[in-house]
Write a structure and sequence with these properties.
By secondary structure, the chain is of the alpha+beta class. It has 10 helices and 8 strands. The protein has a domain of 216 residues: Replication Fork Single-Stranded DNA Binding Protein. α2 runs antiparallel to α3 and α7 packs antiparallel against α8. The structure holds zinc ion.
């Protein structure tokens, strides 16, 4: 070993690097995600086939809330603290409510901090029509990815779960004798702004059951490659210091600072915050507007589509993809 290189330090660094590569599959990085299915035409849907798979904790899929906006040339995709417990304080939800009570300009800005909903689960990709144009090492069929889906797709899955008479029940998560989810994406007619949104209404489960692999060993291998959903959601969290930085950058800090500091100090006093066991009476602030009564302004001043819900996810996804690809 050279005198210029400290052996001990090098070993430490090597081990750190080793650890990084070992952790990689579980950190919820962008590369794990399945590229959002693209839509076909108004008449002809694009069809994708996947099998939903439970993770190692037998979590089937999870709902989460997020805030998405671009600031200072950066795209922020932030897990809303209300994902874990609706009583949790979220500075963006709070900013959204605050601005919503203001004038028209403020209401427009409020939309920026809107809370969005999504679901995430593991899927084994049976068929992806985009594979045709891909090099063999880029094809995704036969691999496990995280699929982030909108409420319209979730309602199809949920229906299959809860309908005890007609639904396929646990068989929609069974790798061996299970039903594929056929995601069919049509294009809606252009809206008033000329924007075309995807339509998932034809999405359904295959009637026939099938196995995702030919042998038990192969299935086992596939099942071992699923991602831990809790860890994935955790990887999307930001610290309070991060939040403060972002809010300052957004020039909204002065408006939220007082409540933010109060909530954060209460949170750090109450170590159970993460598990959501916060006493809502002590945390609830008198000045906090009641978000349950909030409605969004969809008047002409708003440059957003009236058609809210799942469709917005696709704008988000595209912008996010662009951002991440440029990194
Ligand atoms: Zn929030």
């Amino acid at each position: 070993m050279s005198k210029w290189v400290n052996n001990e330090k090098f070993e430490d660094f090597k081990n750190q690097k080793k650890g990084e590569s070992d952790e990689k599959p579980n950190t919820g990085g962008f590369y794990l995600k399945w590229e959002n299915p693209k839509m076909g035409t108004q008449e002809q849907p694009k069809t994708y086939k996947v099998r939903l798979l439970p993770d190692k904790n037998q979590d089937f899929y999870k709902r989460y809330y997020y805030h998405f906006f671009q600031s200072d040339d950066k795209t922020y995709y932030i897990k809303c603290p209300k994902t874990d417990n609706f009583e949790n304080f979220c500075p963006y939800c709070y900013a959204n409510q605050l601005l919503f009570k203001g004038n028209k300009e403020d209401q427009k800005r409020a939309y920026r901090y809107k809370r969005n909903e999504r679901f995430v689960g593991n899927v084994f990709i049976v068929e992806d029509p985009r594979d045709v144009d891909k090099e063999s090492d880029k094809k995704v069929s036969g691999t496990v990815k995280l699929y982030e889906f909108p409420a319209t797709v979730e309602s199809k899955i949920k229906n299959e779960l809860v309908n005890e008479e007609e639904g396929f029940g646990p068989a929609i998560f069974d790798p061996e004798k299970g039903h594929d989810l056929q995601i069919k994406v049509l294009a809606k007619k252009p809206d008033a702004n000329g924007k075309i949104w995807p339509d998932y209404s034809l999405t359904q489960f295959s009637r026939k059951t099938s196995s995702i692999a030919d042998s038990d060993e192969e299935i086992k291998k596939i099942m071992e490659s699923v991602y831990d959903l809790s860890e994935y959601l955790k990887s999307m969290e930001k610290t309070w210091e991060d939040h403060e930085k972002i809010l300052k950058q957004e020039l909204i800090w002065d408006d939220v600072e007082e409540v933010f500091r109060k909530k954060v100090s209460q949170t750090s006093q109450n170590k159970e915050f993460d598990t959501g066991n916060v006493d809502s009476k002590t945390v609830n602030d008198q000045n906090e507007p009641n978000e349950e009564t909030q409605t969004y302004d969809t008047s002409k001043e708003n440059d957003v589509s009236k058609d809210t819900g799942e469709t917005e996810d696709d704008i988000d996804e595209d912008a996010l993809t662009k951002e991440l690809e440029s990194m």
